[in-house]
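re: the backbone from monday

yeah here it is again, tokenized this time
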């Protein structure tokens, strides 16, 4: 007895020893459940959003585009449904705290035969009378009553309740609660995914629109250059080479204009798809302000990383999943431990043909179930659960590392974009002045056609760089907000 008792007590002690929380020593992000806030857009909140036709509201800004996306994008509906399903599952696991009550009714048919000293007993049509009982003389001389045919209606009321299971019931509820937090955080991140996708598509469209408008100016410059060279060629001042070169530059500018027009239409389709509308849907959007607040982002990289550690929903989901795996280990451990259950059965039988024989039974039991051997099932299940905990912990570390990388990447991309905006603004200003001066010099016979075409190309590049730098800055700002979980 002592040989079996010692391992059993050691197993109980191991089951009661919780795993060390990595948040205690600071090796993981401590994203607790109490930090979770309800989703900013839920099923009920969708009725509050203003519904409107994008084509009837004039130019749309980012807020209106996000509004449309949260109404139309199916991603948020899917993750919200997943979160609600997890909530119902958590409620379902709490049913273990209550007794289970069931009712059973059965109709029972009985046909009996008796044999006494090789003589078959009387059935329902025998001498005892049709459908009635009969008397059979036993070898001892006593009369034995028989009911050869009978029908019983039996009712049973069962009540079962788990009294003790060494924490498995509570752990399963805890695991379901953490699964709910995982679903909630995932839903919150899906909302941020929708928002950032809309902003990226919006800024991409603005970039393509700016490049299209810039290319139209390039076409106008190429046209002026060609007309100037052609006029001087016809006047006999310049050679035909100048006219042909400027003509080729003009035709190339027209070709690039068609390319940018196609990119613009493609970007509009991407924006429409991002807000959940058909890709061929077209509407007007607001342009970026001329002066961007590029010097207003003053948070340090350390502050932003701490902000991401506290606010990133996917990091919170990874931590909640780790806690879920810990609770599942406690469930697995309890499967191999004894359980104590209480059972109550209240039964009454209605005898259809012989009501006088109706009966009532009441039974109550308290059962102890002790698993002894199951082919090492519980041992291997516990090892599996521990391995899954290690996997969840590693995934949490990977997620945290990726979060920090996202913040650093977005932070320095924003810093670079801010400087690029400043330099591209100056570049465009000087390139425009250089082109105007070169064109005037060419018309005066001072500059060559090569000088003019180079100046024209530089101006075209400056316009494109100016447009792209502004788009990159607002996109980097949105990416930084998304990286810190504060989009």
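seq for it, each position gets an aa:
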């Amino acid at each position: 007895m002592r040989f079996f008792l010692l391992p059993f007590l050691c197993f109980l002690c191991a089951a009661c020893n919780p795993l060390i929380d990595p948040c205690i020593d600071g090796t993981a992000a401590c994203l607790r459940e109490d930090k979770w806030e309800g989703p900013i857009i839920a099923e009920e909140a969708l009725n509050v959003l203003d519904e409107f036709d994008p084509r009837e509201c004039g130019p749309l800004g980012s807020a209106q585009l996000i509004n449309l996306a949260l109404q139309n994008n199916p991603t948020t509906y899917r993750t919200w449904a997943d979160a609600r399903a997890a909530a119902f599952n958590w409620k379902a696991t709490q049913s273990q705290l209550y007794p289970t009550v069931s009712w059973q009714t059965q109709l029972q048919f009985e046909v009996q035969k008796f044999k006494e000293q090789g003589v078959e007993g009387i059935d329902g049509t025998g001498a005892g009378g049709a459908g009635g009982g009969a008397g059979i003389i036993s070898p001892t001389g006593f009369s034995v009553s028989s009911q050869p045919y009978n029908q019983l209606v039996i009712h049973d009321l069962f009540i079962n309740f788990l009294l003790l299971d060494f924490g498995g019931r509570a752990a399963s509820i805890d695991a379901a609660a953490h699964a709910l937090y995982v679903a909630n955080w995932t839903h919150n991140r899906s909302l941020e995914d929708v928002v950032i996708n809309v902003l990226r598509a919006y800024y991409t469209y603005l970039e393509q629109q700016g490049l299209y408008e810039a290319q139209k100016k390039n076409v106008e410059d190429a046209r002026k250059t060609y007309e100037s060279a052609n006029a001087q060629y016809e006047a006999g001042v310049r050679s035909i080479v100048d006219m042909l070169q400027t003509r080729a530059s003009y035709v190339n500018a027209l070709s690039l204009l068609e390319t940018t027009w196609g990119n613009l239409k493609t970007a509009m389709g991407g924006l429409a798809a991002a807000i959940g509308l058909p890709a061929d849907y077209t509407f007007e959007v607001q342009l970026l302000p001329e002066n961007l607040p590029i010097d207003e982002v003053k948070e340090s990289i350390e502050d932003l990383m701490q902000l991401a550690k506290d606010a990133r929903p996917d990091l919170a989901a990874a931590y909640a999943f780790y806690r879920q795996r810990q609770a599942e280990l406690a469930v697995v451990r309890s499967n191999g431990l004894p359980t104590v259950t209480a059972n109550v059965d209240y039964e009454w039988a209605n005898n259809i043909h012989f009501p006088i024989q109706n009966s009532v039974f009441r039974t109550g039991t308290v059962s102890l179930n002790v698993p002894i051997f199951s082919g090492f099932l519980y041992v291997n299940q516990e090892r599996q659960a521990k391995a899954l905990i290690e996997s969840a912990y590693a995934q949490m570390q990977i997620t945290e590392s990726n979060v920090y990388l996202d913040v650093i990447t977005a932070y320095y991309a924003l810093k670079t974009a801010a400087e690029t905006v400043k330099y591209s603004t100056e570049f465009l200003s000087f390139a425009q002045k250089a082109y105007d001066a070169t064109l005037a010099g060419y018309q005066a016979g001072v500059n060559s056609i090569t000088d003019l075409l180079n100046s024209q190309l530089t101006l075209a590049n400056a316009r494109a760089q100016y447009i792209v730098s502004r788009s990159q800055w607002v996109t980097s700002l949105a990416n930084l907000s998304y990286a810190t979980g504060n989009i």
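The beta strands are 100-111, 115-116, 119-120, 134-137, 143-146, 149-164, 339-351, 359-369. Residues 168-234 form the longest helix (67 residues).
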